[in-house]
Amino acid sequence: MEVQGKLIKKLDKQTGEGKNGAWVKQEFILETQEQYPRKVCISLWGDKVKELDPIQPGETIKVSINIESREFNGRWYTDVRAWRVERLTSNVKQSDAPALPSFDESILPPSEPAVDDGLPF
Description:
The protein has no helices and 6 strands. By secondary structure, the protein is an all-beta fold. It has one domain (2-90): CATH 2.40.50.140. The N and C termini lie far apart (60 Å).
């Protein structure tokens, strides 16, 4: 499944040690671009955490996700895990933007002098 939206916030990386070794997790908040935008907390695990490093808040991204729910002690918990993060747009610095062409006034027809006809407009 894929979801697109604007990266709102990157949460702090979390690390730990499990029975299979060290792990790293990072969560981020994505705001969907729909008529009624929704905010979704998505997690990245392991080496996939590096995919989020170059992306800054405010950029539009496309995230491939898996949604999974599991039961623990009679309660259900849902996890939204990303397995791919793609940048769709990036913030362009003003200095990187292409310069606008200069305006050549010589191509305009000569202007006529203003006539005072007594009207206020």
